[in-house]
Amino acid sequence: MRAPIGDFGNACPAPDCLDRLTEPVAAAVRSWRGEVPADQLLYVDTDPEIADTAAFVEHHGADLLDHSANCVVVAGKRGGESTLAACLVLSRARVDVNGAVRKQLGARKASFAPMATATGETGMEYGGITPIGLPADWALLVDAAVVDTEWVLIGSGRRRGKLIVPGKTFASLPGATVIDGLGIPAA
């Protein structure tokens, strides 16, 4: 099967590639109940050495920047309590941590979670964290521009491999809140 975006040689429906996903992501695909059928979640094999966005688009083409999204883990703090959440923004933007995230989480302070926390709590590899398969009690903040993108390239839970998913999928993921302005232009 040909991928709907990018120059990937072969795309595989995620339910047929569960062994290539981390356990949390595979479990989410196995129990999928989204409005978009699970076989529209596509897995493409990619080189883990170029998993980071800049290297990835340099290798696969700058046009993917308009179809790629990054999922980052944030920690909101208020009164000694810390809340973890994930944010999904297009790769050409950065997460408005001190504005939109802090406000949405009702936090006094918000920051990116340390790598060990992000990977340990999600069960995913750094550089491959994806909104599919996040812990059930987490908020998922999704920039409206992601939802409005026809096909979106995201992590697969590992540095090797990516998922290509219809943008509208993200609005119906567990804990998802779509926010205008969550992603702000990168400097």
Describe this structure in words.
With 187 residues, the protein is α+β, with helices and mostly antiparallel strands. The strands form 3 sheets. A 5-stranded mixed beta sheet has the order 6-3-4-7-10. A 4-stranded antiparallel beta sheet has the order 1-2-9-8, with no helix packed on it. Strands 5-11 form a two-stranded antiparallel sheet. It starts with 10 loop residues before the first strand and ends with a strand. Strand 8 and strand 9 form a beta hairpin. It has helices at 23-30, 53-60, 97-105, 115-122, 144-147, and strands spanning 11-13, 42-44, 69-78, 81-90, 93-95, 109-112, 139-143, 151-155, 162-166, 176-179, 183-185. The chain has a single domain (11-171), classed as YbaK/aminoacyl-tRNA synthetase-associated domain (YbaK protein), CATH 3.90.960.10. It is globular. The longest helix has 9 residues, at 97-105. Helices cover 20% and strands 29% of the residues. It has 5 helices and 11 strands.
